[in-house]
Each structure stands twice: as C-alpha cells, then as structure tokens.
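Shapes recur. One chain:

:::
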Amino acid sequence: MRRHLRTILAVSAILAGALGGLWIGVSMTPAASTKHPEAAGGFKPDKVALATGKQVYDQYCATCHGAEGKGDGIAGAGLPIKPQDLTAGLIMNPLPDHMLYRAIAEGPQSIGLSDLMPPFSPQLNERQINDVIVYIRTLAVPAFDPAQVLPVARERKGPVQPIFFSHVIHAGSFRIDCQYCHANARRSSSAGVPSVERCMGCHKIVATEGNPHVAKLKGYWDRQEPIPWVRVFKIPEHAQFPHKNHVQAGVPCQTCHGQIEAMEQVHAETGQSIVNDLMNLVGIPAEPRKLTMGWCVECHRAANSNDLASLSWVKPVPKLTREHPAAPLDCVTCHH
C-alpha cells in the first residue's frame, strides 16, 4: 500500500511540474499579433503579425497607398489630398499606435485629417488592424523607434474647440514651431492665438478639399469672422506674465504649457487647489499647481541658482540663453 502511495505521489509531482512549466511557458509567450514586441532603441516586429499585416495591407491599402507605401497607389491618383506616404518616418514615427488604430478603424478624420479614406471597421477586426500597423511601422525611413513615440493620451481632455486642431499632427508629426503660429510670444506679453489669415496661409494650399476641419476653417475665412477658440491657460487679472522675457531667456513653451505637441486637445489643470494648499499647510511635500504664485516663484529661485533640473515639472530642462540668469523675485515684477 505504501509503495502504491509513493508511486501515486511521484506521478502527481511529475504531472504538477509539467503543468506548471506549461502554464509558465504560456503566460510568458507574447500575443502573436495584438501587440508587437518592442526593444529599447529599435523595433522588432512579430513575424506572424508582420506576415498577416502585409496580406491585409496588400488587399485593402495598397490601391491608394501604393505597393511600397509611398502614397502612389492608382486609386489615390485622382484624390484632392494625396494618400499619406507611409515611408515618411519623420512624419509617421511620432504617432502612437492607438492614433494609427483610430485612423484606420474610424477614418483619418477622427484624428484631424482627411475624410477621403473610409473607416475600415468592422471590415477589419482588431487583430487585423494591429497587424497592419505592425507592417506599416516597417516601411518607415528613418526606421521606426518606439522610444521616439509621442506620449499621446488615449482619452482627450480639455475643452472642445470650434475646430478640431490637433497639436499632435501640426507640432508633433509635422514639427511646426510653436512661434510660427503664436508669433507674438517672442515680442509681446501675450502669445496670442493665430489669426484665420495665418492658418489660411498654409491651408490655401494644403488640404483645400477633402478635410472637414479645414472646411470649417475656410468657412470662418469666407465670412471674415475670427475663430472663437476656448481659452485654456489664463492667469489672474492682478498678475502679469510677459511671454517675450521668458522666450528670449530660452525658456521653452513646454515648461509652462506642458508637452503640447503630444496633445490632440489642449488641456491643463491650473490655479489654486484646496487639496494642494492643505498638503502644504501640514508640511506634506507637494508640487505647486501650474499658474500659481508658488509655482512661478519656485521656478525663478531654481533659475537663479542654475538648478532647474531639480524641478520635476520642468522637463526637458531649458538651456537658458544667459549664463547667470536673474529671474526677479520682487512682488512688483508680476503685480504692477
């Protein structure tokens, strides 16, 4: 009886070990296509996903985007907006997968682009769309590097504007300098918003047809009306903030406004907060809220001691144009 018991226990242990090893192996095996493996400093696509993605691309995408993804497909030749050149890595690489997914599933108009490409959901399922994205990533020149993707939020925050203007597309993908549109920032106290004329300076040529968002812009231009943008950043009336002083000192826009080039919809949490005030009152370390006096004063103190790197919210650390900056701390500097 004891011999049989020992045999049963031995067999049970072997089976448990085998099942445990199988479970570990399955749990550590990445999904074949829904997520492509990424390596630091490079992109290593899953072979199965890559093969499937190419098949789907050849069937659904190549007629417009071309066999090699250069936007030269025969079906796209007569369109008012040429299909995107998918090999243009400088434009495509900053966009995260979830934006490309939305553009394919819901149509490019969902991310602020043309509505000439139809939405491919539900013709393509989630796995097929993800596989196509894997394949598209391999077309980019220079090569796609996951480390360079913009940290765009999946859910948009902030107020809905009269025209959907994506900073991710304009400032992140096409790298349009902030001061091209906000030209007053370097020469005035207020950065201002671009005039309709400034926007139409590009869009008289770019996407004049086939983009519903540009059509709204053109409507304001034709009616000679200003665009009623919803303001996001505002300091109290009793305080002054001269943009030109900060821009000329080398402070980048992102220091105060956040990583705007990664925002589809501009948003910010600014001003005083009772929670933040209570934490400071009881001595709990807390970062000052944006556009509060403590936030400005901390930045000025750090600038004067050449220690801006110590401020967690100042990223990237600005390269100031003055070797020994003199950021004033007098009350009259801001309250006059």
